[in-house]
Amino acid sequence: MNDRVCVVGIGVVEAKDPMVDVSHKEMLFYATRHALDDAGLERKDIGSAITTSFDFLEGRSLSNQFTLDSIGGVMKPCDLRLGEDGIYSLFAGYMEVMSDPSQVVVVASVQKASERDPDGLSYQKLIADSMEPVFSRPVCKSVPNLLGLEPVLAAMEARAFMDRTGLSEEDLAEVAVKNLNMDKGTKGSGPDKKTVLKSDMLSWPIRTMTKAKEADAACAIILASENRAKDLQNEPVFVSGIGWCSDKSHLAFREQGVSRETKWAARQAYKMAGIRRPDREIDLAEVSDWYAHRELLHCEALGLCGSDEIKGCVADKSFQKEGRLPVNVSGGLLGRGNAVGTSGLIRVAQIVRQIRGQANGFQVPGVGVGLAHSWGGIPTATAGVAVLSKW
Amino acid sequence: MPKRVAIVGVGMQKYEFRKERTVEEMVFDVTRNALEDSHLSKDDIDSVVFGSAVDAFCGINNSDKVAIDASGGLLKPTMRNSTSGSTAISTPILGYTHVASGMHDLVMVICYEKMSENDSAQAVFNTVYDEAYVRPIGLNVPIQCGLEARAYLHKYGITERQMAKVSVKNRGNALSNPYAQLPMKLTVEDVLASPYLSWPVKLLDTSPVTDGARALILASEDVARELTDDPVWIKGVGRGADSVYFMGRKNKDLGRLDYAYLAAKQAYDMAGIRNPMAEIDYAEVYDPFTYKEMQHCEAMGLCPEGGAGRMIDEGISLKEGPLPVNASGGLQGEGNPIGAGMSRLCWCYLQAKGQAGACQVPKDVNNAVANGWGGMYQYNAVMVIGRD
Predict the structure, then answer these.
(1) Of the CATH numbers 3.10.20.30, 2.160.10.10, 3.40.47.10, 3.20.20.70, which one belongs to the domain with range B5-119+210-227?
(2) Minimum CA–CA partner of B77 in chain A
(3) Which one of A137, A218, B245, B377 is CB 3.0 to 4.6 Å from A110, fit for a cystine?
(4) How confident is the model at residue A183 (pLDDT cuts 50, 70, 90)?
């Protein structure tokens, strides 16, 4: 097939500490600059620019429109703004390139969580505001001070998942330890299981250390058709499958402890990429680990392990860096921090680094096919899956 | 090569202020209407594209997620586009890329907006601006557009009387539109006598605050030919955006919409239209303010640059005129639910199909153009549709 879409440049700006000296527009500018340098392109080469963000998270209406100048989208032939998770911009960019293969498309997302009030209450208000207003929201608003609304909702699905699969709190702590230590680079220097299990309980079994902390980050990715990519400096990484899906966002009607949206999104992506046995054909995965239990839940839904194998996979360290199928070797959201709405795109960038062999301390040898997954977070049930490959 | 894309169905609904339907119910209504119109069931639809401008209007974060069940998009790919007013056309363009790229065959495009669930739509509009420099001075849509209108009128010698004629035309056209919120029989003097909101923009030069939704179904060529003998094709799409800071525009001129000319050129190039004045049979342009219809007619090439005043004076854009513009009533007469301005495209489709009822223009419509304007007052999206 001639018209395939490739990632030709990536740029990521991220930090776990608040980035106080740069605005979100500057963060995105630097990310785009890095991506253009990485691809060996200039601003004039950009054909289309796509940004994503959520208005309520930004405290600004039309927040996605606001970053247009930062990504070189001014007076360009076409652009789009999505109110979706970052990884969706990759999907829109993919379709943009397929509709007009001469295009070079920049897709980008930024999140500056540190601009929200630091006690965490603002995010809980956002969760309540995301609820369906007639039936669900009044119930959620009755959680005292709204503090802990998100952990309460997460705990419900965690409990349902643990009941179904027989996972214990120790297993969840194991996942958290894996991801927290990945980020430390050298093994064993981060917190151990005991520390995780002693961390503050938010809502059983969700603890402060089994929930990803918010972080500031920006990410830009440059897409081009295979033909266009031939002339560029980097070895292209192909986007071989994409899929996205949403389940009910009404809490009352949703099946707890499963991720149907991930399963269906993965089904589309695998079909496109021609993958029949994801557990064997995928070399490396970056999945959403917003909560520790969510990593395992998503691995199951993505078909990286069977429902009855999850407990075994934790025990035999299958998802560790040296294991059968490394998951979140970058540290994931738990290790790197969760830039809500941008992390999905950063997962894609991490996979591209691994396939190119540029992941430095995190590199897994011989990655040919990688999977990036993003989940929209409570209370939405939205997932995006991208399969990237070297060939 | 991109696939050809056709519009195969449309879902309409009455535009109202304080509509007594929730977001979900509005989405449900137009979805069902569109499915009935195209004789499809919700299981036939491959994916759903939502368009809604500002979540703060209805007070629901990610309001599209709440409406997923109602749209028939459950466990299907759904994506939400948001570019303020131009969501009207940029959302169908996103739907177009879904089909043109070969990802999906049948795509439901739903635009909705519930603007009346807040204290003041203009207070919400203030939150689109830069929080450090612009927001504190209390800028909102009429004020910003007053500045723009002044620059435009000055640059091309357009008069307030000519602006008023657009209001009379559009609100008059809306009398025959069953979905319209504000049909009125007006005279130019009525409009000129209405109070100024922000000079030179008067109350009757503006569009109302509206709740409403619209749906369209897009299909790939193979599917469209099975569904209908006379498909209406999407022939050209175009988008253009200037800097979000209006102080930072490239041409330093608020009166000329460089980005709209850019968007129109792309769409016409793609559609193979060289002389829009002769080749376009019908237009629905974005008219939140009367002067905006005039600016957009120029940018869409429906009259020479600066010639929009003469166009309305000579009655060219009247319903019976040689190039009818907004025979449905436009945003002025039909109502302006920001993101759901996709109605412009729906009416182009209905006119091309000959199904526009009392709004039908007395001429054959082969090629029609619709545009949407929005973003931070700097984004334009254009779509050219037509029959074979």
Answers:
(1) 3.40.47.10
(2) A245
(3) A218
(4) low
